[in-house]
Predict the structure.
Amino acid sequence: MDVKLTDPSRAHLMAFFVRSLLEKRLKDPEIARHAGGIVGRFSLEGSGMKAVLAFAPTGIEITCGDVPADAGVRGELSTLLGICLGKGFVLPFLMGRIGLRGNPIRLLPLEAEALHPAHDLGAYVYLLPVLVIVGV
């Protein structure tokens, strides 16, 4: 699975970090297989930077700037990079370290990938009340 920047000459630091982290994680065949099944556009916003990750079966394209996304995560850069490293977003959300935008249900495939290899679905037990509160 290929990870590319739409316009590397206009990319910011976060985009390069995210690309590097994703390329490293996608070397694991099971993670790459799971990521190939994700389709959609997801934004990461932090420290004044915004990157949109467009998932397709053939790869992931990272675009910098204000591009429409199905859902997104907003927070400190260190927390966002942790999410890209596979630490998930449920716990940071419950701790108030990140905010979610758009449809949070669209983010669940990303969380399942982050929970690899254990696929510990116990995290969803904590997410369900949150989804009820936000009216999803």
Summary: The radius of gyration is 14 Å. The chain has a mean pLDDT of 80. The longest strand covers residues 49-56. The helical segments are 13-25, 29-36, 77-87, 90-94, 108-114, 122-133.
